[in-house]
Amino acid sequence: MNVDIWMLSAYSEKAVAAAGLIMQINFFIIILFTLTTSGMAILISQYLGAKKEKEAGETATIAIFMIFLFGLFLSTFFYLFSEFIVGIFGLEPAVAGYANEYLRISGTFCFVEGLSVTMVYILRSHGHPKVSMFTSLGANLLNIFGNACFIFGLFGLPVLGVTGVALSTVVSKFCGFIIMALILKFKTNIHFPITKIRHIPIKRAVEILKIGIPSAGEVLSYNIAQMVTYYIIARLGTHSLEAYALLNTLMRFIFITALSMGQGTQVLVSYLVGAGEKKQAFKKTLKYLKFAIFISFTIAAILSLFRVPLLGIFNPSDEVLNLAGTLILLTMVLEPGRAFNLIIINALKGSGDVRFPVMMGIIFMWGVSVLFSYLLGLHFGLGIMGVWIAFSMDEWTRGLIMLWRWISRRWEKKVLIRHLEAADTEAH
Question: How far apart are CA 326 and CA 307, in angstroms?
């Protein structure tokens, strides 16, 4: 999506604003898929830590089948209602037209995204994170080539603009999915559902959802809150909308670093608590948190220092450049706070303590982030600067509460596979 926004900046500013909206919707779609994949990843890692490979394989197989069915449902939904969804945001006609073009195509094929995300989680849980990294890199290079063809009309192809970029993105994701499916088949003991699904206990699906729904709830709440905030920003005008889209493009490089560390922390904590090494899980998480805060602040400082030439890549207007440039300076406050949540929340989920982050997330995302975005941004007239202040208030307050939860060590009583084994014993 970052590549799409960058390349569309050479096509139309309004297309950039539209792609920024679709980026938010795309992240929302991925979060819907994590209702299954996050629960699956936590269970697989704890099972592998406890040396229960058969149960880990069964969990992965049923998750692939569930994601495929859910993905087909979502694809049908976006094909039928993409125009209605875009219309909710009240965009100006040109921006809305571009957004609808992109969403109709990307949403219709979102089941491919779901299967790809599932396979990434399985490969990570089995200790193969580099596979998904190199596959994603290859898919991105293919996407860049496809975008160039459809934006600049290379090789005599028609200039399709946003439609061409959406098609290029879908094709590149599909190619990445095929490669990961083949690697998954030969590098793990996972069997595809079409041959093995009948032999897997239905309780595996129930286990995944029991963990996945509350585990993904915190992230789902965050993304819904982001969609509402996007609506607030849209009320501030197209310049604010474009500045937000450009800023998000750069901030992803800070966000994705801490997010990746958080995902790695979840896998390692799950494995350690499954193996009974809770003390190691406690110490390592605090070590990872310190490093994530340092990295987030350092990257934010570098982006702030070079904000003008970096934003200049997208050829923004002077007003958009000034807006986005000012907000980048605030990322040095915002991003270290976000690191608390990305590391500690993933550690809590990995240990099995999935309900507390959801509860706190709903309270603070809506009671602080969304509420104060409206109050500071619209009511008190601070504009998008007020929205950024509200984001920082939410991340730091919620992050410190999550740190208290981890230090309290209440999560040690939440190890999942032992609860499941106890339930199985009682049932027998």
Answer: 9
